[in-house]
Specification:
Blueprint lengths: L3 E5 L3 H13 L3 E5 L2 H8 L6 E5 L7 H10 L7 E6 L5 H7 L5 E6 L4 H12 L1
Parallel strand pairs: 1-2, 1-3, 3-4, 4-5
């Protein structure tokens, strides 16, 4: 059975690229345009991994993760941030407070970098 991934990013091009690359490797991919959209979809569909843009309008990443942690469908779901900025050690400590957050992917990324991170997280 294919692993399920949700890509949550306010940039349509990033969502489309990640979806195409990941589906090409056999993953089942869902997308969300922001935190509220993702939470609504996640309440109905369990995924193995959420790739979450850290800089989106609306809900802050911490708020999104708190809502995801409440969903019974997401008990085993892992989260990896998409980020265009490098994190300091203190920022990483804060961002990785939730046990669900396991990694981050630096933007821009190549297809190979995205696939390598996803495979590492889901192994």
């Amino acid at each position: 059975m294919a692993k399920k991934i949700m890509v949550v990013d306010d940039e349509p091009d990033t969502r489309a690229l990640a979806k195409t690359v990941l589906e090409g490797e056999g993953y089942e991919v869902f997308t969300g345009s922001d935190g509220k959209d993702a939470i609504k979809k996640l309440a109905k569909e369990c995924v193995d991994l959420i790739l979450l843009d850290i800089m989106m309008p609306g809900m802050k990443p911490k708020e999104i993760i708190e809502e995801i942690e409440k969903l019974p469908t997401c008990r085993k779901t892992k989260i990896s941030y998409f980020s265009v900025v490098e994190f300091s050690a203190d920022q990483k400590k804060e961002l990785f407070k939730s046990k669900k957050v396991v990694d981050y992917i630096q933007k821009p990324f190549t297809n190979d970098q995205l696939l390598a991170k996803v495979k590492k997280i889901l192994k």
